[in-house]
TrEMBL record:
This enzyme's EC code(s): 3.5.4.3
InterPro entries for the chain: Amidohydro-rel (IPR006680), Metal-dep_hydrolase_composite (IPR011059), Metallo-dep_hydrolases (IPR051607)
Residues annotated as domain Amidohydrolase-related: 2-71
Upper classification of the organism: Bacteria, Pseudomonadati, Pseudomonadota, Gammaproteobacteria, Enterobacterales
Name of this protein: Guanine deaminase
Species: Serratia plymuthica
PANTHER family in the cross-refs: GUANINE DEAMINASE (PTHR11271:SF6)
Gene Ontology MF, one: guanine deaminase activity
Recorded GO CC terms: cytosol
Annotated GO biological process: guanine catabolic process
Length: 81
């Protein structure tokens, strides 16, 4: 919120409040058997983020929103060959 306030845009962006503009990605952290196993055994947020950074790829993208509207929906999660 600080960045939006510094730019005098906090009435339009900066959080997920009703009526605000938002671009964001929804990730599925367990699209492969290995990711699922590791995710189930990761209790800390830092561990879950590390898992996505090291094992994540395009299959983890579940949905993408631009200006609050869905612009991408994963048809199906599929395992890499």
């Amino acid at each position: 919120m600080g960045g939006a306030r510094a730019l005098a845009l906090d009435d339009k962006i900066g959080n997920f409040g009703v009526g605000k503009e938002a671009d964001f990605v929804v990730l599925d952290p367990a699209v492969s058997p290995l990711q699922k196993l590791r995710h189930e055994n990761s209790r800390e947020l830092a561990d879950q983020l590390f898992l996505l950074m090291t094992l994540g790829d395009d299959r983890n993208v579940y949905r993408t929103y631009v200006d609050g509207k869905v612009v991408y929906r994963a048809a199906a999660h599929q395992e890499a060959a």
